[in-house]
Write a structure and sequence with these properties.
The chain is of the alpha/beta class and about 160 residues long. It is built from 6 helices and 7 strands, in the order αβαβαβαβαβαββ. Strands 3-2-1-4-5-7-6 form a 7-stranded mixed sheet, with helices on both faces.
Length: about 160
Protein backbone atom coordinates (compact mmCIF):
# COMPACT_ATOMS: atom_id res chain seq x y z
CA UNK A 1 0.00 0.00 0.00
CA UNK A 2 2.90 2.36 0.57
CA UNK A 3 3.51 2.95 -3.17
CA UNK A 4 -0.15 3.93 -3.62
CA UNK A 5 0.00 6.24 -0.61
CA UNK A 6 3.18 7.85 -1.96
CA UNK A 7 1.67 8.32 -5.43
CA UNK A 8 -1.67 9.72 -4.27
CA UNK A 9 -0.75 11.21 -0.88
CA UNK A 10 -4.41 11.07 0.18
CA UNK A 11 -5.79 13.51 2.71
CA UNK A 12 -9.14 11.72 3.00
CA UNK A 13 -9.70 7.98 2.54
CA UNK A 14 -13.07 6.27 2.53
CA UNK A 15 -13.43 2.54 3.09
CA UNK A 16 -16.59 0.60 2.23
CA UNK A 17 -16.40 -2.60 4.24
CA UNK A 18 -14.48 -2.30 7.49
CA UNK A 19 -14.79 -5.79 9.00
CA UNK A 20 -12.27 -5.68 11.89
CA UNK A 21 -10.31 -2.70 10.62
CA UNK A 22 -7.19 -4.18 9.04
CA UNK A 23 -7.12 -1.83 6.06
CA UNK A 24 -8.22 1.20 8.07
CA UNK A 25 -5.41 0.54 10.56
CA UNK A 26 -2.87 0.38 7.75
CA UNK A 27 -4.09 3.69 6.27
CA UNK A 28 -4.00 5.37 9.67
CA UNK A 29 -0.51 4.14 10.57
CA UNK A 30 1.10 4.73 7.15
CA UNK A 31 -0.40 8.14 6.38
CA UNK A 32 -1.73 11.28 7.97
CA UNK A 33 -5.03 10.93 6.13
CA UNK A 34 -8.43 11.08 7.74
CA UNK A 35 -10.15 7.72 7.34
CA UNK A 36 -13.90 7.24 7.08
CA UNK A 37 -15.10 3.63 7.32
CA UNK A 38 -18.54 2.26 6.50
CA UNK A 39 -19.85 -1.12 7.61
CA UNK A 40 -23.30 -2.30 8.75
CA UNK A 41 -21.81 -5.28 10.62
CA UNK A 42 -21.89 -6.06 14.33
CA UNK A 43 -19.80 -7.78 17.00
CA UNK A 44 -16.09 -7.51 16.23
CA UNK A 45 -16.77 -4.74 13.70
CA UNK A 46 -17.98 -2.49 16.49
CA UNK A 47 -15.16 -3.49 18.86
CA UNK A 48 -12.52 -2.73 16.22
CA UNK A 49 -14.24 0.57 15.41
CA UNK A 50 -14.08 1.59 19.07
CA UNK A 51 -10.35 0.81 19.24
CA UNK A 52 -9.56 2.96 16.20
CA UNK A 53 -11.72 5.85 17.42
CA UNK A 54 -9.83 5.72 20.73
CA UNK A 55 -6.40 5.58 19.04
CA UNK A 56 -7.16 8.12 16.27
CA UNK A 57 -9.97 10.33 17.63
CA UNK A 58 -9.38 13.16 15.15
CA UNK A 59 -8.61 11.02 12.11
CA UNK A 60 -11.07 8.12 12.17
CA UNK A 61 -14.84 8.26 11.63
CA UNK A 62 -17.14 5.27 11.44
CA UNK A 63 -20.58 4.92 9.87
CA UNK A 64 -22.58 1.90 11.05
CA UNK A 65 -24.54 1.95 7.79
CA UNK A 66 -24.66 0.60 4.27
CA UNK A 67 -22.44 2.38 1.77
CA UNK A 68 -25.62 3.16 -0.18
CA UNK A 69 -27.30 5.10 2.65
CA UNK A 70 -28.16 8.76 2.12
CA UNK A 71 -26.21 9.67 5.27
CA UNK A 72 -23.04 8.14 3.82
CA UNK A 73 -23.61 9.87 0.47
CA UNK A 74 -23.97 13.27 2.14
CA UNK A 75 -20.85 12.69 4.26
CA UNK A 76 -18.82 11.71 1.18
CA UNK A 77 -19.90 14.87 -0.61
CA UNK A 78 -18.82 16.92 2.43
CA UNK A 79 -15.56 14.96 2.91
CA UNK A 80 -14.45 14.32 -0.68
CA UNK A 81 -11.95 11.45 -0.67
CA UNK A 82 -8.70 11.19 -2.58
CA UNK A 83 -8.98 7.41 -2.26
CA UNK A 84 -11.80 4.89 -1.87
CA UNK A 85 -11.35 1.25 -0.88
CA UNK A 86 -14.29 -0.96 -1.87
CA UNK A 87 -14.35 -4.14 0.20
CA UNK A 88 -18.04 -4.42 1.05
CA UNK A 89 -20.57 -7.19 0.61
CA UNK A 90 -18.66 -8.80 -2.30
CA UNK A 91 -21.76 -9.15 -4.47
CA UNK A 92 -22.04 -7.96 -8.06
CA UNK A 93 -24.84 -5.54 -7.13
CA UNK A 94 -23.01 -4.19 -4.08
CA UNK A 95 -19.71 -3.63 -5.88
CA UNK A 96 -21.48 -2.10 -8.90
CA UNK A 97 -23.41 0.29 -6.66
CA UNK A 98 -20.25 1.35 -4.83
CA UNK A 99 -18.42 1.98 -8.13
CA UNK A 100 -21.35 4.04 -9.45
CA UNK A 101 -21.38 6.06 -6.23
CA UNK A 102 -17.63 6.69 -6.61
CA UNK A 103 -18.19 8.00 -10.12
CA UNK A 104 -21.18 10.12 -9.09
CA UNK A 105 -19.20 11.97 -6.42
CA UNK A 106 -16.07 12.20 -8.58
CA UNK A 107 -13.64 9.88 -6.82
CA UNK A 108 -10.60 9.27 -9.03
CA UNK A 109 -8.61 6.72 -7.07
CA UNK A 110 -10.42 3.49 -6.25
CA UNK A 111 -9.10 0.22 -4.89
CA UNK A 112 -11.45 -2.74 -5.27
CA UNK A 113 -10.48 -5.56 -2.93
CA UNK A 114 -10.87 -9.27 -3.71
CA UNK A 115 -10.70 -8.59 -7.44
CA UNK A 116 -9.28 -12.00 -8.36
CA UNK A 117 -10.96 -13.84 -5.49
CA UNK A 118 -14.57 -13.20 -6.47
CA UNK A 119 -16.14 -13.62 -9.91
CA UNK A 120 -18.90 -11.20 -8.86
CA UNK A 121 -16.44 -8.43 -8.08
CA UNK A 122 -14.33 -9.03 -11.17
CA UNK A 123 -17.47 -8.88 -13.35
CA UNK A 124 -18.66 -5.68 -11.62
CA UNK A 125 -15.28 -4.02 -12.18
CA UNK A 126 -15.07 -5.13 -15.81
CA UNK A 127 -18.61 -3.91 -16.50
CA UNK A 128 -17.87 -0.58 -14.80
CA UNK A 129 -14.68 -0.10 -16.83
CA UNK A 130 -16.50 -1.01 -20.05
CA UNK A 131 -19.24 1.55 -19.34
CA UNK A 132 -16.91 4.27 -18.01
CA UNK A 133 -14.00 4.72 -20.38
CA UNK A 134 -12.63 7.61 -18.31
CA UNK A 135 -11.57 5.01 -15.71
CA UNK A 136 -8.90 2.38 -16.23
CA UNK A 137 -7.47 -0.49 -14.23
CA UNK A 138 -3.99 0.77 -13.54
CA UNK A 139 -2.53 -2.20 -11.72
CA UNK A 140 -3.32 -5.07 -9.44
CA UNK A 141 -1.73 -5.28 -6.04
CA UNK A 142 -1.73 -7.83 -3.25
CA UNK A 143 -3.03 -6.75 0.15
CA UNK A 144 -2.84 -9.34 2.90
CA UNK A 145 -2.54 -12.07 0.26
CA UNK A 146 -5.60 -10.98 -1.76
CA UNK A 147 -5.36 -9.68 -5.34
CA UNK A 148 -6.75 -6.19 -5.46
CA UNK A 149 -7.45 -3.87 -8.36
CA UNK A 150 -6.43 -0.24 -8.39
CA UNK A 151 -8.68 1.83 -10.63
CA UNK A 152 -7.75 5.35 -11.53
CA UNK A 153 -9.72 7.91 -13.48
CA UNK A 154 -8.01 9.27 -16.54
CA UNK A 155 -7.29 12.98 -16.24
Amino acid sequence: LEPILQKINPKIIWEFGFNVGHSASIWLFLSQAKVFAVDPGSGNVLKAKDLLIEKFPNRFTFFHKSSQSSEVYEAIVQNQPNLLLIDGDHSYAGCSSDLKLAKTVGISNIIVDNLEDSANILRAVNDFLEENKEYKLETTITILGIQTGYIIKND
